[in-house]
Amino acid sequence: MNEKIVELESKILKLEQELLALRSQADVSAVGSYIFNDENGEISLIDLFDGRRDLMVVHNMGAACSYCTAYADGFNGVLEHILNRTSFVVSSPDLPQEQLRFAQSRDWKFKMVSTNKTTFEHDMGFEDTPGDHWPGVSTFSLSEDGTTVIRVAYTSFDPGDSYSPIWPLFSLLRHTDVEWGPKISYSDAESSMLGHCSTLQ
Known about the structure:
The protein has a six-stranded mixed sheet with strand order 1-8-7-4-5-6. A two-stranded antiparallel ribbon has the order 2-3. The two termini are 33 Å apart. Helix content is 33%, strand content 21%. It has one domain (27-201): Glutaredoxin. It is an alpha/beta fold. It is globular.
């Protein structure tokens, strides 16, 4: 492999380790009480911990966003591993029944909550103005007495980052100048390779 590539990859790894260390030392803050809605009715932020100490909430822009859908598809694929470590929830401004219908169409297994008519997305920094949402993730923990929710870390999602395997993998292809974006669904021709792969199982 090209020595410059190896050197740069080593620098990136070191920077990622430094970032991890800084995050572990960063100040954390308590957040207020939030009430969301899911297919069963109202549910609080504390309830989302489901008896565990840690919670990860993905800020999804909703079913209309093909990029958010691609990220969610990826999380769904590794959900068993995620849930072995932390509670995991995907939030979006879509109404619960809309979420349920879309989740079933994609065979998503993770829990979803609607942030519609709440200030949660805005307060967490993922809604600049009403209706102007941004994708990302926030992590939370519970205080020792289990009564206070603490926001530990957060980051936004951007095509090309490491929170979806799609773009890092595509960066290894020869023709990196190809313009590509995810779709909610693909034509038969675009999905032909997927069908081919399924016959090899």
